Amino acid sequence: MTTDRGAQDIKPARRGVDRAGIVIAIALALLAAVIAIDASRIQASVTYGMGPQAVPYVIAIGLGVLAVGNLIKALRGDSRSARIWISVPSGSCLQASR
């Protein structure tokens, strides 16, 4: 058996740090912080365990998770593009590539 030395695993090119992704991650983290601070200032007396503060905290946690994930992807320099499927009322689908 012979092996082909020219046929090696080719890894995708790495672009380096994605600055736009880092800016978006920072913006998401700031938005999450503003929502959490604003939710902590809600004055509501609730007799049961969950009040109007619960949903803003859930949204702030979700935005924080998105910020961390976006930051990790930006620091890795992933060059894979995301594909978004958009459903239109006619029943067909449009594909948008980033």
Q: How do you describe this structure in short?
A:
The protein has helices at 19-40, 54-76, and strands spanning 83-87, 93-97. It has 98 residues and is mainly α. A two-stranded antiparallel sheet has the order 1-2.
Note the gap between the termini.
43 Å
Oligomer: single chain
Strand order of the largest sheet: 1-2
Class of secondary structure makeup: mainly alpha
The main sheet comes to: 2 strands, antiparallel
**Number of β-strand runs:** 2
Number of structural units classed as domains? 1
- Would you tell me the overall average pLDDT? 77
Task: State Rg.
Answer: 22 Å
The total count of helices amounts to 2
Specify the helix fraction band: 40-55%
Overall shape: elongated
Q: What is the H/E string? A: HHEE
Strand content range: 5-15%
Taking pLDDT < 50 over at least 5 consecutive residues as the criterion, the unreliable ranges are: none
Word description of this protein:
The protein contains two helices and two strands; from the N terminus they run ααββ. With 98 residues, the chain is mainly alpha-helical. A two-stranded antiparallel ribbon has the order 1-2. The mean pLDDT is 77.
What are the key terms here?
2 helices, 98 residues, 10% strand, mainly alpha
Give the helices and strands, then pairings.
Elements: H1 19-40, H2 54-76, E1 83-87, E2 93-97
Antiparallel strand pairs: 1-2
